Amino acid sequence: MTKAARMFQFNSGFNTMNINKLLAVAGLGAFLVVTNARAEETLFAQIGGEATLKATVDTMTDIMLDDERINFTFANTDLAKFKKLLYEQLCELAGGPCKYTGRTMFEAHKKLNTNNAQFNALAEDLYIAFEKHGVPYRVQNKMMALLAPLQPEVVKKGGTGVPDPDAVPKPAPAAASK
Ligand code: HEM
User: Lowest mean pLDDT: which of 19-28, 87-96, 132-141?
Assistant: First the structure.
């Protein structure tokens, strides 16, 4: 082998080694950037943002209205308002750009005499709705973990599960038109 050829071989070996090292460092950097971005992503974003969360709340409300364990409690509820408030609440809890404007959980549920079985039924309905909208199970669980601390406000000790007759007053009948 000529001296020039030996030098070329040496140089190209050297360069390949450096390039490999560079690629490894660049790869590690990219991995760290992606991992860090994931760590900073809000739960709201992981759920899929406004579109997925709103669709989930809509679907959950439909499922809930078919669920005989809890549907009767919503007999007189303004469902459009309920959906708007539940969306705001979940969005805010998940770190999204919302501000919950409804009542406290205690205030909203105090006359419903909610029990643990009903609380679990609603959680189950929410899981099913998340699933229908393709939200990953570990993301669903993160949302549930944020709702769990609300249980003592929603559930009444010794709750019968049957709302007080005036729990959700019927809306006033529309004024008779002339
Ligand atoms: C983690 C569990 C729950 C959450 C996050 C939640 C959330 C909410 C929110 C945001 C509202 C609207 C508040 C307002 O009107 O100012 C609401 C109202 C209501 N919730 Fe819940 N809720 C939960 C559990 C339950 C359960 C287990 C039941 C039934 C057994 C229930 C029945 C109702 C009813 C009937 C209303 C409407 C009350 C009305 O129209 O005045 N909720 N809930």
Answer: 19-28
Nearest to 120 by CA among 165, 164, 64: 64
Taking the C-alpha atoms of residue 126 and residue 120, their distance in angstroms, rounded to an integer, is 10
| Under 8 Å between Cβ of 108 and 114 | no
| Residue nearest atom 5 of ligand 1, based on CA coordinates | 147
Distance 39 CA to ligand 1 centre (A): 31
* pTM (global) more than 0.85: no
Residues with CB under 6 A from ligand 1: 70, 73-74, 77, 82, 85-86, 89, 102-103, 108-109, 112, 114, 118-119, 122, 147, 150, 154, 168
Rounded distance, CA 52 to CA 40, Å? Answer: 19
Count of alpha carbons within 13 angstroms of residue 35, beta-carbon side: 6
89: CB partners within 8 A, 6+ apart: 100, 102
Tell me the best of 56, 77, 109 to mutate to test the pocket of ligand 1, counting ligand atoms within 8 Å of each CB and taking the most. Answer: 109
Closest approach atom of ligand 1 to CA 82: 12
